[in-house]
Amino acid sequence: MRNLNSPSLTLSRDALRDGMTRAGWPPASIADAELALVELIVNAWRHGGTTSPVVLILFLADTLRVTVSDRSPSLPEQQPLSVLAESGRGLQLVAGLTHRWGVDPQHLGKSVWFELQLDGAA
Known about the structure:
single chain, 4-stranded antiparallel beta sheet
């Protein structure tokens, strides 16, 4: 697994935090989005075998959409909770921090995404 202080992870987190701050998002939402982003990038490294996943950050009205793409065709699945498991909680974390998430198969690999809505947005 890559280092959590890698330049690609740091740049992605900084870009996300900067964009959300400029768009007026509250600090709690920024923290949730950062944690979800880190989880998707780490999953791309660990399970997708992609050292440099592509990160796309979009602001669509009151909705933030973050997409992390890797080269693995294997689609992620949310695992049932187990107190003895050493891993497998990442997508549950993403689901708990965001309004919705999903995966889109691509020609080469897949894109895993999440969306957050600004408080008060439908």
